[in-house]
């Protein structure tokens, strides 16, 4: 994002849990700080060293140990790239339960450390549910091993959960045992235009009702998001005329004709009730991929404007877009664009405001307003990207003081010298970056 610039004396590239353990033991004895780094695709600066931290890169830890097609599990090292894992699983008609735009370079260890959500969370759920086990190296070099691969195991605290979403501040994930899912033999994609946000919400309700268990994604973007991909990355609007909102609906199932008929019936109904004013259903995989491009390339498109102020907010669906509506007049004279898009089915808004160069005046219109609005509506200031460096000091907007105290106590217990990914997540950032 050209926002977080770090420096380091050395990048360490271990190949095994044992090597990571030896590194951490060494660093612990000498009080050397370490920033773990996976595919470096995060959006909140979580993998950037701030002062003189060593980088521990997981990129050489890229072995797939095995796929169990009966138990539906995959065992691998943390540095495996998400897309590579999907390619290996495809041979068994299986796939990973998560998918995100960064799939070509993000690593599974980083996905789990940041508890990445992505495009199909609606259907396959959180990594807190689909990670069945992992190995994590603690700051003192000890190895926590939860790799038994059992789906049910109620013996004491579920320790692996500590490392899911803690952004490499409590331990370094080195090996992973994932619960994986059936690769759907029937995938359908529809792209819809809606006349207003109320109609977008009604379309979501209709999709949940009419498509039920085959609904695998419900993504939305506003007209500013559409204009951005049209102008900056040459992705065309599938429709001749523009609309205030667009929705991408996807189904994953096992019977193509049956799913297609369901999707058509849903669409017909949505058009009859006026929730949808225009709609197209992909006729083949190429067309489906082209429709996905409109949604998936917004992040890249925004980058073309220069500086991007990026927010990843959880809000109740009915209040979700009012944040964009409240923000737009505040930034109108200063920003290039103010775009709202995201995972509507999960109540997750991506609010992005762009400008040619960094502007304090613009920033003052955005923060703390965006966080105050989120707190007022009982939302979360980070739905899926994490706190990293960018939002660590704002944790109070989404967590009560006693929760933050317990988090800091846990950090102190596992990492008494504060060596692992310092200044991130639950720690105050001394530089106020
Ligand atoms: C997405 O859903 C990513 O495309 C990135 O989480 C969101 O750029 C963003 O704000
Ligand atoms: Zn997202």
TrEMBL record:
<keyword id="KW-0285">Flavoprotein</keyword>
<dbReference type="InterPro" id="IPR016169">
    <property type="entry name" value="FAD-bd_PCMH_sub2"/>
</dbReference>
<dbReference type="Pfam" id="PF01565">
    <property type="entry name" value="FAD_binding_4"/>
</dbReference>
<feature type="domain" description="FAD-binding PCMH-type">
    <location>
        <begin position="4"/>
        <end position="183"/>
    </location>
</feature>
<dbReference type="InterPro" id="IPR016167">
    <property type="entry name" value="FAD-bd_PCMH_sub1"/>
</dbReference>
<dbReference type="GO" id="GO:0071949">
    <property type="term" value="F:FAD binding"/>
</dbReference>
<dbReference type="GO" id="GO:0016491">
    <property type="term" value="F:oxidoreductase activity"/>
</dbReference>
<keyword id="KW-0560">Oxidoreductase</keyword>
<dbReference type="InterPro" id="IPR016171">
    <property type="entry name" value="Vanillyl_alc_oxidase_C-sub2"/>
</dbReference>
<dbReference type="InterPro" id="IPR016166">
    <property type="entry name" value="FAD-bd_PCMH"/>
</dbReference>
<protein>
    <recommendedName>
        <fullName>FAD-binding PCMH-type domain-containing protein</fullName>
    </recommendedName>
</protein>
<dbReference type="GO" id="GO:0005739">
    <property type="term" value="C:mitochondrion"/>
</dbReference>
<dbReference type="InterPro" id="IPR006094">
    <property type="entry name" value="Oxid_FAD_bind_N"/>
</dbReference>
<dbReference type="Pfam" id="PF02913">
    <property type="entry name" value="FAD-oxidase_C"/>
</dbReference>
<dbReference type="InterPro" id="IPR016164">
    <property type="entry name" value="FAD-linked_Oxase-like_C"/>
</dbReference>
<dbReference type="InterPro" id="IPR036318">
    <property type="entry name" value="FAD-bd_PCMH-like_sf"/>
</dbReference>
<comment type="similarity">
    <text>Belongs to the FAD-binding oxidoreductase/transferase type 4 family.</text>
</comment>
<dbReference type="InterPro" id="IPR051264">
    <property type="entry name" value="FAD-oxidored/transferase_4"/>
</dbReference>
<dbReference type="InterPro" id="IPR004113">
    <property type="entry name" value="FAD-bd_oxidored_4_C"/>
</dbReference>
<keyword id="KW-0274">FAD</keyword>
């Amino acid at each position: 994002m050209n926002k977080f610039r770090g420096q380091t004396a050395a990048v360490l590239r271990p190949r095994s849990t044992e090597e990571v353990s030896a590194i951490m033991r060494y660093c612990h004895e000498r009080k050397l700080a370490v920033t773990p780094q996976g595919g470096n695709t995060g959006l909140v600066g979580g993998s950037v060293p701030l002062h003189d931290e060593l980088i521990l890169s997981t990129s050489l830890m890229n072995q797939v140990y095995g796929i169990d097609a009966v138990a539906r599990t995959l065992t691998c090292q943390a540095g495996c790239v998400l897309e590579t894992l999907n390619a290996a699983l495809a041979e068994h008609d299986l796939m990973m339960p998560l998918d995100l735009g960064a799939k070509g370079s993000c690593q599974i260890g980083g996905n789990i450390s940041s508890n990445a959500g992505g495009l199909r969370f609606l259907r396959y759920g959180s990594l807190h549910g689909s990670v069945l086990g992992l190995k994590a190296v603690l700051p003192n070099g000890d190895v926590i091993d939860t790799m038994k691969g059992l789906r049910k195991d109620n013996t004491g605290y579920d320790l692996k959960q500590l490392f899911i979403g803690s952004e490499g501040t409590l331990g370094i994930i080195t090996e992973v045992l994932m619960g994986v899912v059936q690769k759907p033999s029937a995938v359908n994609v529809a792209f819809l235009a809606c006349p207003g946000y109320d109609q977008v919400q009604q379309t979501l309700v209709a999709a949940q009702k009419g498509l039920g268990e085959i609904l695998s994604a419900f993504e939305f973007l506003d007209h500013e998001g559409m204009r951005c991909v049209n102008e900056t990355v040459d992705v065309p609007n599938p429709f001749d005329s523009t609309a205030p909102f667009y929705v991408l609906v996807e189904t994953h199932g096992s019977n193509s004709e049956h799913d297609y008929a369901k999707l058509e019936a849903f669409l017909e109904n949505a058009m009859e009730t006026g929730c949808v004013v225009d709609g197209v259903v992909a006729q083949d995989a190429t067309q489906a991929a082209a429709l996905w491009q409109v949604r998936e390339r917004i992040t890249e498109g925004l980058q073309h404007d220069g500086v991007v102020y990026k927010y990843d907010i959880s809000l109740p669906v009915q209040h979700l877009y009012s944040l964009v509506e409240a923000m737009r007049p505040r930034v109108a004279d200063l920003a290039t664009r103010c775009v709202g898009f995201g995972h509507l089915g999960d109540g997750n808004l991506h609010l992005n405001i762009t400008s040619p160069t960094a502007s304090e005046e613009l920033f003052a219109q955005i923060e703390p307003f965006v966080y105050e609005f989120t707190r007022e509506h009982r939302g979360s200031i980070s739905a899926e990207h994490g706190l990293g460096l960018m939002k660590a000091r704002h944790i109070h907007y989404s967590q009560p003081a006693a929760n933050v105290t317990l988090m800091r106590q846990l950090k102190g217990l596992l990492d008494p010298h504060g060596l692992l990914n310092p200044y991130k997540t639950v720690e105050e950032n001394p530089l106020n970056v």
